[in-house]
Specification:
Keywords: Membrane, Transmembrane, Transmembrane helix. It is a single chain. By secondary structure, the chain is an all-alpha fold. It is built from 3 helices and no strands. The chain starts with a helix and ends with a helix. The relative contact order is 0.08. The protein has one domain. The chain is flat.
């Protein structure tokens, strides 16, 4: 089995799709951000970088459920087809 067969197998299983890599990336960035937020002074650039990453992760993981809830409410009200 060479490397191309391995990559083709992962692709066929759907493990190389972008959504499959989002959660592990978000978890690792979140852990880094929490460490930086807890250990950096508020005036340091590391603190503000970590805050930006934390906000990005919260939006990335929190916005889809909120949008789904909004869509469901609009469908029930008959405002969406």
């Amino acid at each position: 089995m060479d490397g191309t067969d391995f990559v083709e197998g992962l692709t066929a299983a759907g493990l190389l799709d972008p959504p499959a890599g989002v959660l592990p990336l978000a978890v690792s960035l979140g852990r880094w951000a929490l460490t930086q937020l807890g250990g950096s002074a508020i005036g340091s650039s590391g603190f503000w970088e970590a805050l930006a990453v934390a906000v990005y992760i919260l939006v990335q993981l929190g916005l889809p459920p909120l949008l789904a809830l909004r869509e469901r409410r609009l469908r029930r009200a008959g405002e969406l087809l």
